[in-house]
């Protein structure tokens, strides 16, 4: 992957809010402190997909975190439709058939497909409850290897697995990490977390931060501080 020329691109602000108007208000308040925004289920289902081309037209990058997983044809056609909106990243779950279909559907317009290995809200007990025989680190490594074989552009994983994932996927694929919490922030529902500085030192390309920024009295200042910490 090409080196990032703007350090702000390493921070992806999660617009996990209820309405498009609220999301647009946050983007305005954050201003030039951030260049990259994530739209997940909550906002997408509330009309947020229409926000993608508007943000892209404003020179901002968009991460569509929709975690697609379905039969191959459905995933392929879904990815093809979403690519036309102009996002930079799109997530799918790291199942081999799903990943191969997403790669077929991404086209040539620059959309990068990220594979979600194991959710950062999962720990060993959660993985066992879900029926996985492998440990979380082993499951992450297996799915990262399958993603590389499928031609996926990057991996979504916990920062604590970043080093092992990098060893599997090599230097040319992205690692994107949610569950990042600045020092002193509440963990919320995250269980495998790091601070922004720790994540950068672990070789993470992009960090996803939501509530510590969007819930702050001054989200612009918090975004600035996170970028500075990673730099």
Automatic annotation (TrEMBL):
Concerning Gene3D superfamilies, the annotation shows:
Aldolase class I (3.20.20.70)
**Pfam families to which the protein is assigned, alphabetical:** OMPdecase
UniProt-annotated catalytic positions: 65, 67, 70
Name the residues that bind substrate. 16, 38, 65-74, 120, 181, 190, 210-211
Catalyses which reaction(s): orotidine 5'-phosphate + H(+) = UMP + CO2
| Annotated metabolic or biological route of this protein | Pyrimidine metabolism; UMP biosynthesis via de novo pathway; UMP from orotate: step 2/2
**Could you tell me which SUPFAM superfamilies the record lists for this protein?**
Ribulose-phoshate binding barrel
For molecular function, the Gene Ontology terms on record are: orotidine-5'-phosphate decarboxylase activity
Gene Ontology BP term (one): 'de novo' pyrimidine nucleobase biosynthetic process
Give the signal peptide as a residue range, or say none if absent: none
**UniProt keyword list:** Decarboxylase, Lyase, Pyrimidine biosynthesis
* GO cellular component term, pick one: cytosol
InterPro entries assigned to the protein according to its UniProt record, in alphabetical order: Aldolase_TIM (IPR013785), OMPdecase (IPR014732), OMPdecase_AS (IPR018089), OMPdecase_bac (IPR047596), OMPdeCOase_dom (IPR001754), RibuloseP-bd_barrel (IPR011060)
Query: Is Lyase included in the keywords of this UniProt record?
Result: yes
Recorded hits in PANTHER family, A to Z, give: OROTIDINE 5'-PHOSPHATE DECARBOXYLASE (PTHR32119:SF2)
Q: How does it assemble?
A: Homodimer.
Record function comment: Catalyzes the decarboxylation of orotidine 5'-monophosphate (OMP) to uridine 5'-monophosphate (UMP).
Say which family it is in.
Answer: Belongs to the OMP decarboxylase family. Type 1 subfamily.
- What protein name does the entry list? Orotidine 5'-phosphate decarboxylase
